[in-house]
Amino acid sequence: MKVISTNIGDPVTFEWKGKKEQTGIFKYPTSKGLFLRQNDVKDDTIIDRVHHGGTNKACYLFSSDYYSYWRKLYPDLSWDWGMFGENLTIEGLNEFEVRVGDIYKIGEALVQVSQPREPCYKLGIRFGTQKILKEFIAHNHPGTYVKILKEGSVKKGDDVDLIERSSNSLTVQHFYELMFLKEKPQELLSLFMTNESVPQYKKDRFKKYLS
User: Fold this and answer.
1) What does the alpha-carbon distance between residue 158 and residue 3 come to, in Å, rounded to a whole number?
2) E strand or H helix at 126, and its extent?
3) Which of 138, 145, 165, 186 falls between 20 and 30 A from 129, CA-CA?
4) Cα–Cα dist 36/34, whole Å
5) CB count, 10 Å around CB of 78?
6) Helical axes 186-194 vs 172-180, angle rounded to 10°
7) Res. 52: pLDDT tops 80
């Protein structure tokens, strides 16, 4: 895997249900690269710190491989890397292969896969339509958030090297699928609940599905 683009954003004001709000989802490529910190990306915009940033969502990665799919669906948008609000656009990122808990070296930083991205209405603001939410869920390639185990700089062209493979076989796609399935497969739930890298608050929400 390789870093195709490093992206950050400034605050953008929009109107939602009659109220003015701000978002940091409008991210664009930067030639300076990024510095990944424990709870966020330096100089990036995070408006809602309840749902973004923090230990488990310090940096968001999305695959460049799927951009062609989305360009065909939305040909009239002005396309650039960072369209999905990702800090790092990664070539070769496959959620069906990447495991929750995998550790990667990206540039100077050491990161650990923590959880997939759940789309919210602000993705709809970026795309100009809320129908993108159902389409994004159905496409089943959500990208992933990572924890920062070692802070450091990341730039375009850096390799994304697997340092340690998680012994638990729960993939990012498994995690994502589990969130939206009405019937939760017990085998998948078991993987989820025993994976040490799944955030505890997520496990607490899923306890009620255990048989």
Assistant:
1) 5
2) helix 121-127
3) 145
4) 6
5) 5
6) 120
7) no
- CA 24 to chain centroid: 14
Tell me the pTM: 0.92
In which residue are the tokens 């650039």 written?
80
Q: What percent of the chain has pLDDT over 90?
A: 82
Half-sphere exposure of 106 (CA within 13 A, CB side): 36
State in Å, rounded, how far the first CA of the chain is from the last one: 38
C-alpha 113/C-alpha 107 separation (Å) is: 16
Read off the pLDDT band of 21 (50, 70, 90).
confident
Distance of CA 119 to the CA centre of its chain: 9
- Is 3:89 a contact under the CB 8 Å cutoff? yes
CA 107 – CA 97 distance, rounded (Å)? 21
Check: CB of residue 35 under 8 Å from CB of residue 42. Answer: yes
Beta strand spans in 43-187 (E): 59-63, 88-91, 103-106, 109-116, 144-150, 152-154, 160-164
| 89 and 144 Cβ atoms separated by less than 8 Å | no
Output the six-digit token pair for 3. Answer: 């870093």
Q: Do 209 and 192 meet the contact criterion of CB atoms below 8 Å apart? A: no
Torsion angle defined by CA atoms of residues 117, 91, 23 and 205, in that order, rounded to the nearest 10 degrees: 10
